[in-house]
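Below is how a single chain appears once it has passed through the pipeline. First comes the sequence as given, then the structure the pipeline wrote out for it. We keep one example in the README because the format questions we get most often are answered faster by looking than by reading.
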Amino acid sequence: MTWHAKMSASASSRWLECPGSVQLAERMPDDDVSLPSATGTAAHQLAEECLKTGRYPARYKGKRYHVDGFDIEVDDAMVYGVTLYVKYCNLLHSPGDMRWIELDVTKWMTTLHPWFGGTADFVTYDQELRLLSVVDYKNGSGVYVGVEENPQLMYYALGAYRMLRNSSHPPEHICVHVVQPNYGDDDPIREWQVPLERLREFQQEIVDAAAAAELDTPPLKAGDHCKFCPAKLHCPELQQHTQLVQAREFEILPALSDVQLGRAMSILDAVEARCKAIRAEAYKRLMRGDKVPGQKLVEKQARRHWTNEVEVVARATNDPEVVTEDIYQAPKLKSVAQLEKLVGKKAFAERYGDLTDSRSSGYNVVSDGDARAPASPTQASPDEFDNI
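Resulting structure:
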């Protein structure tokens, strides 16, 4: 959907905890793009296409999606993840069942509040069993997405339930599912049966949160949810928590009570989220040429890279001190430093020195007191800050 709801399902874990974030976030520019988020969007587009056409993702390997300025190629990892999701959706859906791909639940949620809206990845309904199933695909690998009491999934389930509640066979059982193939060793598919009574309670919770968000001075609350808030750099509540942490004397930490230490720990994620946002903003401004007093950009430490891997292999094959298999680190050629360690620095310089160069992988923001010379960036990369 092109219209973006103020209190969307995807942001529900934030605004349920902090209703005041709704108005703050609305005033922020919509420039929160990154390579991981663009990759996730591309994976969702591939999944939608596969579910609608009946084709498996492997047929799309090598296809490119253009998302938020990024050129995303369908690689083996995306094929694996989307295949798992598509197969699971097809397994849930039996012949004769109703199903929706990318179901926009806004129509049924705005009757509760005009700020509500969202799109569920996959919904299927077995009228005979009165079973409503909602599936959400998560492409990310950095944050574990639990299924029980997941507000985003409950939001979608509520929208789908409201769509069907006045039908001749309304839902009596609701199950929500998360498919997250790229997160660690945990079971990539999780499900939770949502009691209807719990869904009704959840409906009241989001209605109450919307009422609070509309107040002239809506309540703000710092916590884990702050890391995903677009307003974290400008939030007065988060700024206050940051100042509280800064005011602590490190040398008296051992004297803190368990309760005091627990309170300090409870706000660290929120404070760290704000700190990261400050660093990201400074990096963005310096990359576009702005002056940030007391700060500058310097190149990251340069790492040596091969300039001609084919020639490296040719020379190493005839090198009496090298066993051919030893020049590889599966599934790719060993690094410059690793091969240098294998043959020794002097021999390496003589045999391979002309096949290497040194180049920095990006920039760091440091204080003006740093001894390194300031850098002059020529082009900013939207996702480069994630590697700092």
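Residues 135 and 177 are 5 Å apart (CA to CA).

See the next section for the split statistics.
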